[in-house]
Sequence to fold (780 residues):
Amino acid sequence: MSVFPSSRRGFVAGSAGLLGAAISAGARPAHAAPAIEPFHGLHQAGIATPPQGFTSFAVFDVTAGTRGALQALLQRWTAAAAQMASGEAPDAADRDDAPGLPPARLTLTFGFGAGLFEKDGRDRFGLRARRPASLIDLPPFAGDALEPARTGGDISVQACAEDPQTAFHAVRRLARIAAGDARIRWAQAGFLSPRGAGTPRNLLGFKDGTQNVNVADPFALDTFVWSGLEGPAAMRGGTYLVARRIRLAVERWDAVVVSEQERIIGRRKMSGAPAGGEREFEAERFDRRDADGRLAIAADAHVRLASYDGSGARILRRGYSYEDGGVGGYEAGLLFMAYQKDPRSGFVKMFGRMAGSDRLMPFTTHVGSGVFAVPPGVAAGGWVGEALIG
Amino acid sequence: MSVFPSSRRGFVAGSAGLLGAAISAGARPAHAAPAIEPFHGLHQAGIATPPQGFTSFAVFDVTAGTRGALQALLQRWTAAAAQMASGEAPDAADRDDAPGLPPARLTLTFGFGAGLFEKDGRDRFGLRARRPASLIDLPPFAGDALEPARTGGDISVQACAEDPQTAFHAVRRLARIAAGDARIRWAQAGFLSPRGAGTPRNLLGFKDGTQNVNVADPFALDTFVWSGLEGPAAMRGGTYLVARRIRLAVERWDAVVVSEQERIIGRRKMSGAPAGGEREFEAERFDRRDADGRLAIAADAHVRLASYDGSGARILRRGYSYEDGGVGGYEAGLLFMAYQKDPRSGFVKMFGRMAGSDRLMPFTTHVGSGVFAVPPGVAAGGWVGEALIG
Fold:
């Protein structure tokens, strides 16, 4: 069981005795201003928040020379993030780079890469001893084609909003505020198909997320996502992000007949039902066989290898499709974003099972990667990562 | 005055005697199904159509060996485009690559590059003599940094929709249908900020489009956009597209103080009013001077050089912002899309005046370019470009 109240709203409502009225004052209930997601809370927003339509994700390299400068950067970023999420005007000390853009459910979610704790063998900020054990370096996987320029980095910023420009300008403003202390290493924008029509479809044309961890289920979040008593105190209520930029060979995929696409995925394209089944949300029956005795969901089908098998390899996926145009073909794919209690029992276990054998692999190329310790949420007056970096 | 009925809706309503009932049957009135833009009409949709939120633009190189194969490609594309715009299921001969995506006001707008009429000195399709005089090769401009792979091409496809995935999948489906006859040369996705909040803002954070040609003004469209009696009969009701991929140095721009940004643009950032003025839509008074006798809108301000001066250099801009992520900084900017009666009196005249002296130029780099003859609209049973290519 969790040591925390389980939802942001529940926390705000019941927390007067814990972190005090400052948080309640900083968070607007969703019903009063539906385009605002509260910045302050026990967990950072943008994780269990129902997915917004767009993301602007960036990973920064920190160039600040001292821990004090790093702390000051995080304090400036926290203040700017809280202001932008609130939709209120910036204070006199800062400026609004794009006045008139709506907050549009903006969330800003910060994570810390291994480079903050140790870089090129140097303990540059005196933080080496504080590196959480769960903040691992990912092992190499079969098929990896990681570009160094899109891999790693010191601080991740995931901006999500219902408007792409709101998300983009939010990260740009953080980049401006960071001048001299951090600079963008790599960035990626993404989108979801509209959620009103049910489970969003990915760029393969399939519904994606049917079996995802339910962000409305506090038990599932505590089991699979939020860091708890097993980790360092400074990470409790936080989580770990594995980000992968996964290029999809969309032209080659489109040339595959739909029946074969369905065999590769293990689900029906139109309905989203498991192969051999009828309805999107029915359980995947991996032992089901067709009239000829063949497995309905093939042994190497994507959903079989990605599925939760009770071993603990379950993650909260919060990915976005991307289309960056391209030359001679499309540069498009999935900005895979997965939150989990521990990448060793989450992404590494799941993807290790898939990388060599998933029938979908020939259509995917992992070209960027990062792992980040996502600290817990912030109380009004506090700053992101205070317990870990302070 | 125009030789055509001036609006698509007006045309559909009043055209029974001209192109017949087939068009009326193919076009759904906007009020009956607000997420549908009629595909058939006198003009192609996606030009005078009020801008949708997203674009997926692609330029194809034609690889078909004969004019017959080119015609067959355009026929297949026309049928698929009409079906996708209608939101109806594809017929048995084709398939829906992403079932369940909404039509979301999808428009598909086709244009023909010079390469269709003559390529590498060869008249490969016997069309050389039909090349419209207005389909020029652009002259070089000061500051051009065009990448050959993002420049030129034979057929442009502009997909616009209120959903980015609908637009992207529409072009991908055309690419699949084209297999063997055409392939993507370059592609670019883009977005607008939400239009409910007034004039959209570009990635410079300024309102963009205040002085644009009004698509609700049929006289302006006939004067500046639609090809008429001055051009070849096969282009009447068509227009010419100049597309430019313009990279914006957003980090450098963000480092400029707002008062200097306003001097560079010649407008106020918050209100959008002309420098020295008060309201967004008031006329630009280029002779206005401040108390010190200086021009309120500087001699090299962007809006002064871009403005319509009565000389005919006026274009319908229908551009989209893009953010392609990036490495070591942002790859972001403007997919500039301008429709005009004749690029010689439109884009070339306007941009020729700006390229050397616009104060905004140091923040912009033109990295891609194309000019396309956009044929008129299609009657049900017809195909795009029939009069020009048939």
Q: What stands out?
A: Residues 40 and 378 of chain A are 5 Å apart (CA to CA). Residues 8-248+370-389 of chain A form a domain with the Alpha-Beta Plaits fold (CATH 3.30.70.1030).
